[in-house]
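Sequence only, no structure available. Ideas?
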Amino acid sequence: MGLTKLVLKRPVSTVLAILCLIVFGLSSVMKSPLELMPDMNMSMMIVMTVYAGASPDDVNELVTKPIEDRASTLSGLDTISSQSKENMSIVMLKYDYGTDMNDAYDDLKKQMDLAKAELPDDADDPIMLELNTSIMPNVIMAVSHGEDDDLYNYVNNNLVPEFEKLSSVAEVSLVGGAQKHIKVVLMPEKLKQYGVTMNSIAGDITGADLTYPAGDTEVGDQKLAVSTEQPFETMESLKDIPLTVSGGNIVYLGDVAEIYMGADDMESIARYKAENGVPEDIVALTVSKQQDAATLTVSKDVSKVVEQVTKLDPTLQITVVNDDKDSIMSSLSSVIETMILAIIISMVIIWLFFGDLKASLIVGSSIPVSILASLILMQLMGFSLNVITLSALVLGVGMMVDNSTVVLESCFRATDDTGFKEYSKAALTGTGVVYQSVIGSTLTTCVVFLPLAMLGGMTGMMFRPLGFTIVFCMTASLISAITVVPLCYMIYKPIERSSAPFSRPVEKMQAAYRNIMKKILKKRGLIMLASVLLLAFSFLLAKNLDTELMAEDDQGQITITAEVKPGMKIDKIDQIMKEIEGIVSQHPDVESYFTMAGSSGLSMSSDPNISVYLKKNRNMETDEVVKLWKQQLAGIPDTNITVEAYSQVSAMMGSDNDYTVELQSTNYDDLKAVSDKIAAQLSDRPELTKVHSSLENAASVVKVTVNPIKARAAGLTPAQIGGTLNNMLSGVTPTTMNINGDDVDVKVEYPKDRYKTLDQVESITLQTSSGKSVALTDVADIRFADSPASITRQDKQYRVTISGIYTENSTKETKGQLLTDVVMPNVSGTVSIAQNSQEESMATEFTALFQAIALAIFLVFVVMAAQFESPKFSIMVMTTIPFCLIGAFGLLWIADSAISMTSLLGFLMLVGTVVNNGILYVDTVNQYRRDMDLNTALIEAGATRLRPILMTTLTTVVSMVPMAMALGDSGSTTQGLALVNIGGLTASTILSLLMLPAYYSLMNGGGKKRVIISD
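Reply:
I predicted one. Tokens follow.
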């Protein structure tokens, strides 16, 4: 109360303090970074290794397994998972939460340095990345250049360096186009004539292009370094490189090879179709930000570079296909609009009860003060302004109004006692009456978020900022309620009008409440039974609710991925993608799409995919378009197509909307046999369609198995044979040349048709260091074998995912029935059922939230017991907590919304908010019992507090309605939280007013005796 007295005595100083708060708050808004989601430190590392020309089998055996073995010695590891694809190994290391990732990186680097010696010579060095949201492309651009037929090299040499200069950029990648280089095409008959090999020629080119230090010499007073060099400035100069041949003869490179500028066959595809445009082949340029860089900063920096380079070259066309800035601004704008709407709704409700615009302004003035104070604290904590933190402010609006409304209503009641001329005394007295209640209710709301600060994992990273933000809001609203509200009440001198729209209805409700409670207090047992039955019914509703890790936000983007057989030619892949594009382009809601196949950047998927961007004003929801395309694209042959709505939530956490089951085994062949059998049986079930196994999309590959004994006897090693074969079939790049300021690779290769067939591969001859020729078939077995599209392992066990699409014949019990009827009977031996990664994450995060809710209930009990100085009253108020489940589960069921992390967070919030009305009621009963018998006190306390309880509940509930309607691009993310709070608060308010008196009566002798509570 001392603070309230000080404010009322020093109004000018208080106003100046509020002005300072406004200035600092606005400054915090300007300084805070804008992001879509909180920064997610996933405690995960990725090791990516390129092994060009290798099948998934070879990648798994020669690259993935050695890396797994080295990584398994690291401390703090939770799981090791890997994926071996054509040309690429991806090993993902998940660490225990709280692991210092800088130390983890250093330890991993040491192990990868050791692993390099165990990898094939022609495999690239492993690249280590810490997994976080920043490794995903933030800006994707489509580049075309009308006057340059060498688009890839133009972009790589002129544009990529400009973007790499930006301090906010971590990686720049290119997809599409054909990279031109200087081709040194060997003539096999000439090689045979002169007795030279591809490897010796590559070595001679490398040696001829080196700069050698030759010591130093003195010229006058100066000492000058001397070096020898033979620079190549033109393609013609390459022809004059002397080659090492037997017999001492001199042969030049031009004698045994054709040298010209050319390009390999297209290895990647990038195509873009703008709105009202036609599909155009382009080079895709993707930019990923540094982890500590703000997304909007990256977008701004990239835009400046684009503007500069297009000014210098008007023929250059750069189209921004996707910019994360747009989705961030759209999502945040919708959240801010929801917040403004919530503030307006709260002020309207206050006016409906009091009938005085000044009363609404008093409460309305406390809201921005509380929000600005919260923003200052958020900025000091280093929180960004994102969907989660701004949603916390939206939730805070309704709860902020609670304290101000209770104080304002108490001031009006005090005015009736003191007279309308003594507003300062009424402000002080009214605040004093509810001082303890608002402090207690604020504390109970705040303490429930304390467990969030101790949570680890995904839940803690995502929702800790939300918890802190609401605590900041509630603390600021408490201070505002006992300072700003009484000050404004004294200055504005509002008058409660009997003609207020809700005055007469509230009076009628109070009269009806008195009559109802007289009957209820006589039938307390029946009321208890009814409440328990309602609670049991709510749990029945909960059993029918779906569960999901987190609701996905609708960003109007769809990703279509085509899984193809390994080794499929790029021309065939292009044909498949064009067929998909034909179906996509016919949909009227499609604004643009972007096709990529192949990869030249580690951040890009190796599977062909199409990113589709829907129109803002579309006729169909994104999920409806996804369902339609799943049906339309299912008939395309030679590929397994996946269609998913894209969101940053799904990108971070994955998506699991259809049927999946995962199996694991230490034996690949056993796993393949069992998975094929299960997939075949699932295909016959009417509940599923388009059943697919991740191991079924196999293709034939040629296996060259070196016999080490025969190889050694011939003077060769398996590594030499493998390296020679790779060079002969794929070519080798011994050096680069600088032509017109651009670095151009020099590639030595055989003619395209030289080793095109299996017979030609079998005819390969190898040369030993002594010059002896050895037939490949003399030292190796050559055969056909099947290779899957990818090989997945977790903790050194092979894994397979069998998936399908639910049909209309499926029910909620379908997954369990399929597990019992099909999967389990076929699992035996080394094969077992693996826990689905989504289900595993869900179980982990849900368990953490349940523990947080349990701890929150205990903390609320402690706070209330301390406030009332009585555990009995604390337990009495806490009986309102389970009954909020009736409304929460009921509204989730009506809205057909799943139980998710956000809805469980809503239950956590309810623990702290539903008791507020109970605290206010019990506190009033205890005051009235000084002068009344128990039953009268119970009835009059409820009637007296009916209006403030209705006001606080309505302002909180109605202000959350826009959030519950999932307005805007990211509305779905927090919809469950709002639904749980609306349903829970509504049910608990009604039940608190009706059932708390019965509980109070039972625990205090049923009204048979009067209990005097001393001061």
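The CA atoms of residues 454 and 460 lie 7 Å apart.
Hope that gets you unstuck.
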